[in-house]
Amino acid sequence: MSTHPAAEKTSRKLYIESYGCAMNFSDSEIIASIMGEHGFVNTQDELDADVIFLNTCAIRDNAEQRIRQRLIHLRQNKKHNNELIIGVLGCMAERLKSKLLEEEHLVDVVAGPDSYRELPKLVAEVDDGGRAINVLLSREETYGDLNPVRLNSNGVTAFVSIMRGCDNMCSFCVVPFTRGRERSRDPESIVNEVIQLKNQGYKEITLLGQNVNSYLWFGGGPKKEFKSLTKEEQDNSVDFADLLEKVAEAASEMRIRYSTSHPRDINEKVVETMARHKNICNYIHLPVQSGNTRVLEAMSRNYSREWYMEKIEMIRRIIPDCGISSDIIAGFCTETEEEHKDTLSLIEWAQFDFSYMYKYSERPATPAAKKFSDDVPEDVKGRRLSEIIAVQNKMSKERNSEYVGKEVVVLVEGESKKSDQDWMGRNDQNVVVVFPKEHYNRGDLVKVLVERNTTTTLIGKAIH
Ligand code: 5AD
Ligand code: SF4
Fold it and tell me: In terms of domains, do 232 and 366 share one?
């Protein structure tokens, strides 16, 4: 690897702060790797940093507002260190582009999700007295050849990115604009990364993508549908179920998880692959967004309430004890009271173990922002969200109570937030379990007898 001029100032310190989804946290590990090759070492202390990168999220307005406040605060650090370089990376950088440099004067570097290889060069441009920006999106970049530097790691669980971008175009979502076109990563590089993690002692990996079920490797480049491949490409192609199997076999003593699934694309082949391999965890994150078919259509989700219910039935038929979680949006444009009630009834019907629940937040330039007015009043959105949360909490508590008196196998991830005498880990279905430490260690698989539960947690003790 050639040394970039930026590396000449040896051991400059880099502080990275990540916001948003797991994909972003995973990207920060790629960023650390690229910067590391150019002489930057990571620091956990923002006051000690020569370069501060915020890897940002643009999914809802409140995510951006939080980051803006943080940037205003960080600018104060320049008073103590006038050579400090501040960069905004990721989805908010891609959405706002040069606006962050020119209008708001908040930062020195702006870099979108496909331009991280350029970061050392962009920093060097700032060293030379300029401001630097690269927000080009790529149709090929997967960073597949890089070795992510594990940041803030518990040494037990790690993320592995298997694809980038998103072609779904859900009408509410900014991601297709901030992360560009969907492309899959070479399966060989994915398996190699997993084996490396195994050799480093990691016990669990989560394969990451915006829509993992549409993963398709046929030699690289922008996404194509299977049916549009040549016969030869089809014969050599690797779909998500094939990839899952390869990973499960390459690391048979590790737990394998994945996220996120799209209800339109999840299929029996994937669920049967999960059922065949004991080390693939019985847990699926399957965002429904709304329980009403007309609203789903307005969201361009490409499935109906009934289609979603059939997918849940298919999963429960093949893996009866599968954990299932969801994402739900309250008060999407034009949603009526009756349609909102369909979401409440679907949560009860599907018996989600857990959901991420949000008020709709209009994102500029998305299809929904162009087509509809954001016409559900704020107080109505708030009330609908509270109702959704109340039903989901009731479901979660009920689902968790079914574990009481039973044994679960827990992978110990770290200390419980509430007590340094207890370990915290997850069972196969991704439910958090807390139990007294005794002689157990981080990374152990421990059989725990569940004694009681809350909405979010199972509490018990180890069985010797
Ligand atoms: N407003 C509210 N929630 C949104 N999400 C995506 N876009 C928006 C938006 N504009 C939610 C969806 C998605 C999750 C990652 O964030 O539920 O699944
Ligand atoms: Fe946020 Fe979406 Fe970007 Fe993830 S992909 S950081 S959730 S905007």
Answer: yes
Using a pLDDT cut of 90, give the percent of the chain over it. Answer: 92
Q: Compute the chain's Rg from CA coordinates.
A: 23
Range of the domain at 425: 407-462
Per-residue model confidence as pLDDT tens digits over 215-250: 999 998 888 999 999 999 999 999 999 999 999 999
CA distances from 418 to 164, 423, 450, 457 (A): 36, 10, 18, 12
Distance CA 246, CA 249 (A): 5
Q: Which residues line ligand 1 (CB under 6 A)?
A: 59-60, 172-173, 287, 289, 327, 329, 358, 360-361, 363
Cα of 28 from ligand 1 centre, angstroms: 21
Ligand nearest to the CA of 23: 2
Nearest bound ligand to the CA of residue 261: 1
- Determine the Cα–Cα distance for residues 203 and 135; give it in Å rounded to an integer: 36
Q: Hey, what amino acid is at 27?
A: D
Please give the tally of structural domains in the chain.
Answer: 3
User: Among the three residues 100, 134, 168, which one is the final residue of a domain in this structure?
Assistant: 134
Whether residue 202 is found in the same domain as residue 108: no
Are residues 127 and 172 both part of a single domain?
no
Report residues whose beta carbon is within 6 angstroms of any ligand 2 atom: 20-21, 23-24, 57-59, 90-91, 174-175, 178-179
Asked if 53 and 17 count as a contact pair (C-beta separation under 8 A), the reply is yes
Any domain includes 143: no
Of these ranges, 72-76, 104-108, 333-337, the one predicted with the greatest mean pLDDT is 333-337
Instruction: Provide the 3-class DSSP secondary structure of residue 251.
Output: coil
Q: Which atom of ligand 2 is nearest to the CA of 55?
A: 6
- Distance (Å) from CA 57 to ligand 2 centroid: 5
Q: What is the CATH number of the domain that holds 226?
A: 3.80.30.20
One domain for residues 310 and 169: yes
Give the Cβ contact number of residue 401 at 10 Å: 15
| Cβ proximity of 106 and 68 under 8 Å | yes
Q: Which amino acid belongs to residue 403?
A: Y
